[in-house]
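Would you mind giving me a polypeptide sequence along with per-residue C-alpha cells?
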Amino acid sequence: MEDHTFVVGQEFPDVKAFRNAIKEAAIAQHFELRIVKSDLIRYFDKCATEGCPWRIRAVKLPNAPTFTIRSLEGTHTCGKNAQNGHHQASVDWIVSFIEERLRDNINYKPKDILHDIHKQYGIIIPYKQAWRAKERGLAAIYGSSEEGYCMLPTFCEQIKKTNPGSIAEVFTTGADNRFQRLFISFHASICGFLSGCLPIVGLGGIQLKSKYLGTLLSATAFDADGGLFPLAFGIVDTENDDSWIWFLSELHKALEMNSEKMPQLTFLSDGQKGTLDAVRRKFPNSCHAFCMRYLSESISKEFKNSRLVHLLWKAAYATTTTAFKEKMAEIEEASPEAAKWIQQFPPSRWALLYFEGTRYGHLSSNIEDRWILDARELPIIQVVEQIHNKLIHSWFSVLAPSAETRMREVISRASTYQVLRSDEVEFEVISAERSDIVNIGKHSCSCRDWQLYGIPCAHAAAAIMSCRKDVYAFAEKCFTVASYCEAYSEEIYPIPQKIDWNKFGEAPSTLNEDAQVVRPPKFRRQPGRPEKKRICVEELNREKHTVHCSRCNQTGHYKTTCKADIMKGIEQFEPCTI
C-alpha cells in the first residue's frame, strides 16, 4: 500500500497485516491514531486530533483470518501534526523498516536510520530510539550476545573437527564461567605462515562494539605479494599487559607445535608498553619495530603539520647516516617541539638505517583489520564466523592484487600532501608540483585519475584520510576480491570425450528419422591462402613509399602497370582535324 489509501471492502490477510497498514498510513500521512477497540475479531480506530472526523472500522471474516474494512468515515482536517515525532513510530516499527538494510550493511548507523526515516516519512525520531532499534534488529538477525557466548565451546569444537590441527580454545573465569579470553589459529594459517610468508608479524587490537564490548587481538603476517595474511586472533574481555602476554604465549605454542625450530621473527606494533613487554618475554630472540603508520598519525595529530609527517617518513626510509641526520635536522628546524617529541621513540625501533632485524621494506603493519571492522558490532560468535569466512578466500586484501598495489602507492604518496577542506565533500589538495580539487561525493579529482581508473588517486586518498574515512570504501566494487570471487563462483564443468557420449545419451547417428540433422552452410572457403588483413599501428604512422615508373618517368605506378603505350596507340587512331 504505497499510496496509503483505504477503501471499504478492502481485505488484509490477518489482523496483524491490517494494524501494520494503518500504522504505516498514519506515519506517512502525519496523523496520530487513537485506538477505540482492537482485538482478534474487530478493530476500530480514529484520528487522535480533537474534532477530526476520520474513522475506520475493520472486522474479521467468518471461518478465515482475513480482515476487511467495514466502514471508512470522513477525511482528515487535522493537517500534518506529527512531523516532529510519531507515537506509532515505535522501536518495533523502526526494526521492521531497517531489517533488510541491516542485512546488507551491518554498519548501518543510527544517524543514517534517522536520515532515511525522515526522507521517506518526513518525521523526526529520537537518536536513542534509532540506536535501540538497531540493537534489536541485529539481535533478531544474528541472535543475542548471550547466545553467542553460550555457543563458543561448541563452535571451537567444530573448528577443530573440520580443520584438524587448528587451535580453538575458550577460557573462562569465576565459578559461574564468565568469558575471559578466546584464541583461534587455523592449521592452514600456521602452515602457510611458516612455509610461505615473510617472517614479519604485525600485532594489532581493535575495540569490539557489541553489548559486552571486548577487544580483538590479531597477529597478521605478509605473503610474498605483500598482502595481509591473518595468522591468529584472540578476543579478550580487557586489553592490558596480561592479555597481550597470554595472546603471544598462545601464538608461541601454536608456532612451536608446527615447526622444529622457531623462526627468527620481526614484530611490528604501535609500541605500547604491553606489546613491548609481551614480545620481549615470549619471543626473546625476535626484533620489535614500531609501526611507522602509527608514528606518522601520532605526530600529525600532535602537531597538525603535514610537512613533519613527510620528513619523518623520509628519515625512516633513509639508508645513510647523512641522509637521516639531514631529515632530522629539517624536523628540528620546522618544529623543535616535534623533534623533542620524536626522541621518545629510539631510531632503532623505527628507522631502517638503525633497525637490527630485517623488515623487507615493511615500515608499517598496514593492519587496520578491515576484514573485521564490519562485524565488530555483532555478537562474539558472529565475529568469529566473519573472520572464518574471510579466511577461506585466496586473498586477504580488500582489493585484487593489482588494484591493491595501486592503492598502497597512492596512500603512500598521499601522506606528503597538504589538504584544505572546503565543505563536507570538496577539498583542495596541495602537492609540491600542483594544486588539485577533490570531490569525494562525486568521486572526482581535477587530475582525472580517479575518474579514469576507478581507484582514488593520491590527491583523493589524502582528502579521504583527512576526514578519517576508509580509502578502500571509495574504490569501485569491481576491483574488490569479493567481486573477483563472485565472477568465478559458478563452475564450468568438463565435457566428456566423444567416445563417452553414448554413455550419457544417444549419439546423433542413433536418433530417429524425424530428428533434425544439421548440415554445414553452403558458403565455403575459397581455394588458396587467405589474405591477411592485419593492421599494424607502426605502419599507420609510417610515411608511405612513392613508387616510380621506369618507362614513363611518372609516379603512382610500376612499369608493369604502365599505360603509356596504350595511350600512344589510341592517339594514332584519332582522326586528324583540318
About this structure: The mean pLDDT is 79.
